[in-house]
Design brief:
mainly alpha; elongated; 3 helices; single chain
Length: 69
């Protein structure tokens, strides 16, 4: 399985898609954490989803700063 390059994916997304995807990844992170606390294994951990959310939010910050970050 190839790692997903969230930064490259984020560059091709609209601002609305970035916001939606970041919120969705955060919800998935919360669910993964809850499953982990319950003793269930998940394919992606809370950290994986948080990394994904961060990549989307980072792209939004970069755009709003005029690409100067």
């Amino acid at each position: 399985m190839h790692p997903i390059d969230y930064k490259s994916r984020a560059r091709r997304m609209t601002d609305a898609a970035l916001l939606y995807s970041a919120a969705d990844a955060k919800k998935a992170a919360d669910a993964a954490a809850e499953l982990d606390r319950a003793g269930c294994r998940t394919l992606k951990t809370e950290g994986n989803y948080l990394d994904e959310a961060y990549a989307y939010l980072d792209e939004l910050r970069r755009r709003r700063a005029g690409g100067k970050l």
